[in-house]
Amino acid sequence: MHRRHLLTSLLVGPLASMFSRAGDWPWFLGSARDGSLEVQVQPWQGEELSTAWSIPLGEGFSGPVASGGKVVLFHRQGGDHLVEVVRAENGSRVWQTRLPTHYEDQLGRGDGPRATPAIAEGKVFVTTPEGVLVAFDFAMGKKLWSVDLPSTYAPPKGFFGYGVSPLVHQGSVLLNVGGEGAGVVAFSVRDGKELWKASSHQASYASGILMRLGAEELAVFFTREGLLALDPTKGTVVHQMRWRSRQNASVNAASPVAIPGGVFLTASYNTGAIALELRESGLHKVWSGDENLSAHYSTPVYFDGHLYGFHGRQEEGAELRCVESKTGKVKWVMRGTGCGWLLRARDRLLVMQENGELLLLKADPARSRVEARAKALNGTARALPAFVDNLLICRDGKECKALKLAS
Considering the entire predicted model, what is its pTM? Predict the structure, then answer.
């Protein structure tokens, strides 16, 4: 593991950006990029939630994002990818822009967008499954610039198209592009020009996050090869570690998770999980294994010494688990859930299962406690929901809903 210099503290944590405000959900995993929302969600009565609005939507796995009372949706209808903005209060359209597409998934897993957009500095950034990074004006929807990643950097073709969500930080858009000498590339928010590029790590399906490791603020990626942590302003590699399956037909898809003193990685395909601790000489393994919390695609959430997430392959019947972050000890298992996504609302968990059922759990390592449940979506839910002004905005391949949650 390469170290640039010794670190003087063992502080760690995800970083919210100066461009986000309270109540916004401007990018993948929310403002703090860790799936958390700083509100308390109360258990609801019965098995139905009140719907503030619902609108038709095309296919895709791209999650909604929101800022300033407006929601960005990214989906596909026919021969177009659609980027559209609606009002969070009622779902009425503000603008819509079409991007013509001929993308066809080679394994038949859907032809819609995979990556979640990002909102920052008055712009919306999307990455298409073809591998094109596009910037739009957030207010009016005008296309500002685009970069064709395959044509520019020639990365190897992924199994399911390109699926990395943009990571925006202080005037730059960072992506795990995956090209030779261009594993991670930073582009100017203003005009899309390359600012720096680093490593040759191939692209995964995990989106990068900003994290404080010791005294440094780093952009941390779980690439196809493993961990890659860089200085987000210069591209200097600070940490790197190989962590991937021996199977070529495998992907890394869950984003890195900040844990006290280090970072947590998880993958499926007989790879497993690893907890790393930052010491003066670099990152060191605390524990690892394939029987603890091996996530296929969903990023776990951390709370109060424990990790909560889905363990197991999506097609083989995953289960929800609580794992002690210091030891990897499995504290409890909830079987029969299948895969899905988690958000943490203080000491509670919002769990959106793939079958469209929403659960509210107490984040309690002693036992799994379902406090409320409701049928949120009728179709398959594989997109990360957003939480804005007490509304859970979620989607499947046919509609987007805003559900009212009491806080």
Answer: 0.94
Q: Tell me the C-alpha distance between 131 and 150, whole Å.
A: 6
Name, in order, each residue with C-beta under 8 angstroms of 312's C-beta and a sequence gap of 6 or more: 268, 294, 296, 318, 319, 339
Per-residue pLDDT reduced to its tens digit, 155-173: 998 899 999 999 999 999 9
The answer to whether 167 touches 233, Cβ cutoff 8 Å, is: no
Q: Please give the C-alpha separations between residue 100 and each of 76, 80, 96, 140, 258, in angstroms, as whole numbers.
A: 10, 4, 13, 19, 38
207-245 in b/e form (b: 16+ CB < 10 A) is bbbbbbbbebbbbbbbbbbbbbbbbbeebebbbbbebbb
**Domain boundary assignment for the chain:** 12-404
For 215, residues 6+ apart whose C-beta sits below 8 A from its C-beta are 7, 8, 9, 11
Model confidence over 11-28: pLDDT tens digits? Answer: 445 654 433 444 799 999
CA–CA separation, 234 vs 167, rounded Å?
15
- Which class would CATH give 12-404? mainly beta
